[in-house]
Design a protein that fits this description.
It contains 4 helices and 5 strands. The chain is α/β, with parallel strands linked by helices and about 120 residues long. It is globular, with a radius of gyration of 13 Å. Bound molecules: flavin mononucleotide. The site of flavin mononucleotide has 22 residues, from helix 1 and strand 4.
């Protein structure tokens, strides 16, 4: 399984680094032709980040699931980018994490992606 991520202010990148996995930065990639799990943040009131939309335009057929970061101050749209992607591409939201997540979050995500 491969991994791809989008991070604007560093939280998702921190998750990737603490997991110790190799992951493609979607904003630097033209696409991927192997199965992958996407890590993304949630943008402007529940939106999927533009760079993620572009990446999925070319690579969604290999998408297996999404791990999404958000912030609970956005009560109505918490981690909604993951829900939007899940519906649009019929893949599961594997985990919702607030900002860069706690050590417990990282352990839970590690378990999910290794299973
Ligand atoms: C302009 C802006 C809009 C955001 N909108 C949402 C939102 O609608 N829902 C949510 O759960 N988080 C929202 N967030 C929070 C980010 O998704 C969250 O902090 C995430 O961890 C950022 O990841 P990054 O540091 O890797 O870019 C927003 C953040 C910003 C700056």
């Amino acid at each position: 399984m491969r991994f791809a991520y989008a991070s604007r202010t560093g939280n998702v990148k921190s998750i990737i680094d603490r997991l110790g996995i190799d992951a493609i930065d979607v904003s630097l990639s033209n696409g991927i032709d192997e199965d992958f799990i996407l890590f993304t943040y949630t943008d402007g009131y529940g939106n999927v980040p533009y760079e993620v939309e572009d990446f999925l335009d070319t690579s969604s057929k290999h998408l297996k699931g999404v791990i999404v970061s958000g912030n609970k101050n956005y009560t109505d749209t918490y981690c909604m980018a993951g829900d939007v992607i899940s519906k649009q591409y019929n893949v599961p939201v594997l985990y919702k994490v607030e900002d860069a997540g706690s050590d417990e979050d990282i352990a839970a995500i590690a378990k999910i992606i290794n299973s």
